[in-house]
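Example 593.
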Amino acid sequence: MRRLYLLACAAACSSSARPVTPTGAGRAELVVYNARIPTLDDAKPEVSALAVAHGQIIATGDDAAIRALASPGTVAIDAHGRRVIPGLIDDHAHYIRGGLTWNIEVRWDGVPSLADGLRLVHEQAKRTPPGQWVRVVGGWTPWQFTERRLPTRADLDAASPDRPAYVQYFYSVAIVNTLGLRELGLTKETQTPPGTRLERDASGELTGALIADPHPGLMYQTVARLPSLAPDDQQNSTIQLFRTLARYGLTGEVDAGGGGHEFPKDYAAIEAVAARHGLAARAAINLFAQHPGTELDDFRSWMQIAHAGQKFDDEDVLELHGAGEYLLWATTDFENFRSARPEIKPEAKAALRPVVQEMVRQRWPFAMHATYDETIANVLDVLEDVNRETPFAGLRFSFEHCETISEQSIRRIKALGGGVSIQSKMVVLGDDFVARYGAETAKRSPPLRKLLELGVPFGLGTDATRSSFNPFVTLHWAVTGKTASGRVLYGADNRLSRLEALRAHTVGSAWFAGEDDHRGRLQVGQRADFAMLTADYFSVPEHDISAIESVLTVVQGHVVHAAADYSALGPAPLAPSPSWSAVGHQDPYWQRR
Ligand SMILES: [Zn+2]
Ligand SMILES: [Zn+2]
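Predicted structure in complex with zinc ion:
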């Protein structure tokens, strides 16, 4: 049934190209004026107004010229001098998977103390019905807490005495309370997958910690065993998450799939939301190989039912981009910096070759998770080898994360026409990284300025929802070089200016969706995706960048988020479901008060 729907939509939706208005002439559907707008358009870098029709920017300029394009039916918005930026684009995140459980997750994003975090768990435990779990699956690091530590099983027993609880720190460690261990059937005798373990105390008892050593398989497995929501609740939850992204100025993501997230069945909620309600942010989907050993077969079967570039809705906001972030499990390293770097085995390179070859033959853009330069160099040997026989000829590919990428690897990627997709994971993991590899190595991990200097395509994002979704945390990190503990990782020679960071997080990230020619800038003919900010990104003290939100977010010419004076322009409020949702009881990102 799902497949039929997908194919029907492929036929109906793939020809939904928007009409292009080549000049500023014509009637505007929406105008914004009295704004400060860095357009990222070199020909007209700073304007005060813009006009929108048919989902596109039809003019930019001064207030008088733009207001002249309005008619009585035009929505005219006075920005009152606020900053308006091109919509931020996350170059690598897992929002489609995250949307399926967003409503029932407790979020610790930005929470200042473990005590506050445990209080939120306690409140959610009281709402949670029997048979359900309390879960924190990412967005935080122990380094952000004044206590500077992970919760223990005893902490979670106290906070959630009557419901099983699961708390995950990135892909490093997860802690389960006593009820949770019982529910999962985990005992001293349990055998765990290779590269993972259950932590034991001095007497051999389980502490409740599930460790990626460094393989995250035990966490993938455990999260997949927690009860899922009913289809209607999954759709509601997806809407709530995408509206949250819009609230923080995000208008698009490159979706990296995820472990335990199967195509096409786990994409039913996002497709239904895109088709029936419209999405508050765009998603360009990469398909993630789920099963070690059968990756090539999986991709071949997906290539039978779907094609790269396929649209799933009339508004052109949901599309299938390509493959990734896992092409082959055996060439994938894992980023638990509390554990040693995994070695890629020589036979894995031989196994990767036919998968890459298939991508090139079928013209599927592909993205590959790679944390360490050693992994990247090995994979590049394979790519260069394939390219000699089956030329890439402009096919886009990227390495994702790349914390320790070397200058030589960047040059090799650039020569093949690839890109480097960067996320702000060092905000969460940087202190663990320093503990293992030292502050000196951390100074160029990842080498932000080197990427800029060498001119390789690169973008910015989060790898949420295991890290925080908040794009202003990413901008803050790129500009200040700070982790969540306040440690400064980078000198001035590896930090970006605010404008450089904005460019990377907009048009830079659009490259990874294959759309840098029509979104990421505010110029005529580009998609009308932008955000009006609560504070001026360019002039607030650096410390306050991470506290910025959007008061008005527009995607494809539609207002998808509106707050303060603009509330009446926004979509109708939607109550979260199920009734015991955590959403609505806390801010998704902790508010400084
Ligand atoms: Zn990854
Ligand atoms: Zn990822």
